[in-house]
Input
Amino acid sequence: MTTANTETPATDDAASGDSAAGGESITLQPGDTGTIQPAEEGAVTSVPVPEPTPTEAVGAASDLKDAVNEKSETVGGMVESLDAMALSVGDMRISVWDGLVVILVIAGVFALAWLGSKLAHGALKRMTRLDPSQRVLAEKLVTLAVWAIAIFVGIDLLGIDLTALAVFSGAFGLAIGFGLQKTFGNLIAGIILLMDKSIKPGDVIAVADQAGNSTFGQIRKIGIRAVSVTTRDQREYLIPNENLMVNQVENWSYSSKTVRMQVPVGVSYSCDLELAEKLMLEAAKSCKRVLKVPSPTCWLDAYGDSSVNFVIQCWIRDPEDGIGNIKSEVLKKLWYLFQDNNIEIPFPQRDLNLRGNDQFDQLIAAVSQRVEEKNSSKK
Output
């Protein structure tokens, strides 16, 4: 403790009261104790000046520590030991006890948010008035709202002094902006796709693999980042939502699930074309998945090199069950019908015309001579 012995005249309003009393004032530094001696009474007064302490980053940890100390001295001593192990950064103090409290609160908030989102999804599924796209959109919005509320509740429970993080907020926000740019873009794209109902779970769309081979698949799930599309061979494609927004998408069940498929067939030039066409329609109508209305049709497509090419047009209402199996069933049935009615499916045929010249004649003569010599040697 030090005693201030230097007296200075009062120069501001705050010191005017002291000047009125004794006409004297002193200036004390933090951590010092000053002694003031008024001129009239001669009494000595000691004025302590407290030293500034670092601010607690997590206010809830201090309140919880006091509550534990009141309940149990043993546990309170352990908490005091954990709280003593601290790191001070500027005006912020972070201890091991603060870290444990933060972890427990975060775990509790995440558990409550997960449970709340599950309950909300269950409630939305029981609302039969919502179609699949509206239900998925509602689930996304409810999930975002639940997690946002959970984060704000966690911050409020912890009593975190956000001003202590002001130094890092600019750089952290910039990093989040660049790092999650695509994620937020896919999230907004998914919400837009669900709002305009261009795609929804259960739709059948045409997709292409990495080799460029186009196939079709059924949408199983529209997630925050990507759409899950499962093909007939159980390959699951994860297509980013932005790709479905900016690229052309072939949706087989956008407004209706009724889809027309084509089965190409070739017959011989010498066969009865009317009979062949009749058999093709019969084979298509025999398939159970082919619709009766509209009925199958058969078109003459082109005169090929070796065959007359037809195309069987038939309609189905369940493209998610595949089209290859229908094509196979129609062609197998048509094979037996063609066999029973002597309709020929021709092989490719080529006519070769050889022009004569001196070199060709010499080649033929040499081959003929070698054949004669071989026959004579056998005799």
Q: What stands out?
A: Residues 96-125 form the longest helix (30 residues). The first strand starts at residue 33 and ends at 36. Residues 1-25 have pLDDT under 50 and may be disordered. Residues 50 and 324 are 85 Å apart (CA to CA).
